Amino acid sequence: MTVKNPAGKKSPLNSKGRKTAPKEEEWTHVGPRGRARMVNVSAKRVTQREAWALGRVYLKPETLKRIEDNAIEKGDVLSVAKVSGIMAAKRTAEMIPMCHPLQITGVDLSFTLNNESSRIDILAKVQAKDRTGVEMEALAAVAIASLTIYDMCKAIDRGIRISDIGLLKKTGGKSGDYFNKEFLRQSR
Fold it and tell me: CATH number for the domain including 162?
């Protein structure tokens, strides 16, 4: 029996948890002996790449109000979260072992305060002209910006919840464009 991953591809492990030798085209980050490796992208064309990721941070209404009024003791929460998200996008390859270092050409984060749901929506857009996509960089930007909001507000709100981090859209590259309509619909 062969174990399959969610995409239906064969796993490097059989049903007894022992390594098998997957075909190279099946698992790009796994070598012939089942060992992790970084994919060689040198033969790929350099193209313009963009990715958008979205995430949410749920807080108490009074915490959200203090962020809006810039009345958090540690400082301007959204400015610090924006800088931390940009830094995370730039350093993604240092945090995620199989990510390639990229020539990022732009990173932007925006924050929408939703008083009705007592949450902050975070949108990150990352751009690069490179051989591989910037999806991980956009996701890292949202995740670290979310954690920064938590860190800056935890003294007054231990119940902060980070939620719904996902890829919204990506453009460029061999696989073409992708838009996650379902994720956008569910995240409203």
Answer: 3.30.70.640
